[in-house]
Amino acid sequence: MTVTLPGPTLGVVGGGQLGRMLAEAAAPLGVEVIVLDPTPRCPASVVARDQIVGEFDDRDAIDELATVSDVLTYEIELADPDVLESVAAKHDIPVNPDPKTLRTIQDKLVQKEALADAGIPVPEFIGIGGEKDLKLVVEELDGVMLKAREGGYDGRGNTPVHEPSEAAAALDELGVDTMAESFVPFEREVSVIGVKGADGVATYPVTETIHADEILRASVSPARSDDAVLDRARDVATEVLDFLDGWGAYGIELFETKKGEILVNEIAPRPHNSGHWTIEGSRTSQFENHVRAVLGWPLGPTELREPTVSANILGDVDEPAEATLYNVDRVLDASNAHLHWYGKTQVRPLRKMGHVTVTDPAAGEGDAVDDALVERAESLRDELTFVDVTADQSRSASQQ
């Protein structure tokens, strides 16, 4: 296609931090973004041209979004693929990634079955029909990770089941629509951000993902693994991209087993938390490439600029509270450190509120990440807090 500026208007279903960073990436390209989100003044609203307030599956709201957009995309899997298909057809505008990919991804059991049928390596899995099924599977596989088939994220919707006696409680927690996966003896978890566009497929360097309590805490790029494993991870990610329909960025979460095998954990048909490092660490961020891809524009280069680590800022409060982040100057004073604030007005326990990225400009493009760079990113992140440090200092002073 011939690209001219000002560019088209991109309608995004979802206005959280991913929508915010999409809008930030779109602006220099001359692309205006309109987001749809149920939360008034959602995080993306201060960056996007406009916000339509509505639920992610609200047909009237999505129809309104389509009337003011040239292309539709989404940044959350709660979007309704049936509504997206019908509204896009009504207005004769493209929606990317393809809604049928979203339909496959939304149900974790359907996702795993489709990947397995395509010959893509995945952990052993089975759909659970009830407590009896789960008990048998737990005995057979010596414990499983039970997953809600729809709606889970950041560890929510997953629970380990080690003994048959735990089956009833696990199903009470997650509901009846579940699937079970065998525990994977992994060496590390890794991720590949892949992009499909009009001019082909591209992948970013393999990234090591560090989790605690099933929540992503830090992303390390390039991953600290050997070249053969990294090559295999890229190959599997490319197989996944070939299997999926529709242009855009995809987050492909993988396990590297202790034997050096690569298994697909889950796929996100959108920019992904494990790719936030690309803003500073890659030639083109995942957000810019998502915008380019869904519009049918040429993709930007995905090569690593320099070793990069990104660490998530999570809510460190015990109860929901108004969000005020303290010790920000510690990051601002640090060299080669970059702070990203998501604009959420309320902090909750372990809620993703932002991230810190550090780079190593002294290293070459092909250099591995030094462990000290990981420690530096995590240390800077850990200095940030939502606990009112000024109040604590005042109380301490008054007690002296």
Descriptive tags:
alpha+beta; 4 domains; 19 strands; four-stranded parallel β-sheet; 13 helices; single chain; D-amino Acid Aminotransferase, Chain A, domain 1; 400 residues; nine-stranded antiparallel β-sheet; Rossmann fold
Report on this structure:
By secondary structure, the protein is an alpha+beta fold. It folds into four domains: 9-95, Rossmann fold (3-Layer(aba) Sandwich), CATH 3.40.50.20; 124-182, ATP-grasp fold, A domain (Dna Ligase, domain 1, 2-Layer Sandwich), CATH 3.30.1490; 184-303, ATP-grasp fold, B domain (D-amino Acid Aminotransferase, Chain A, domain 1, 2-Layer Sandwich), CATH 3.30.470.20; 306-363 and 377-395, D-amino Acid Aminotransferase, Chain A, domain 1 (2-Layer Sandwich). The protein contains 13 helices and 19 strands. The strands form four sheets. Strands 9, 10, 11, 12, 13, 14, 15, 17 and 19 form a nine-stranded antiparallel sheet that branches. A four-stranded parallel sheet has the order 3-2-1-4, with helices on both faces. Strands 5-8-6-7 form a four-stranded antiparallel sheet, with helices on both faces. A hairpin with a 2-residue loop joins strand 9 (186-197) and strand 10. Helix 3 runs antiparallel to helix 4.
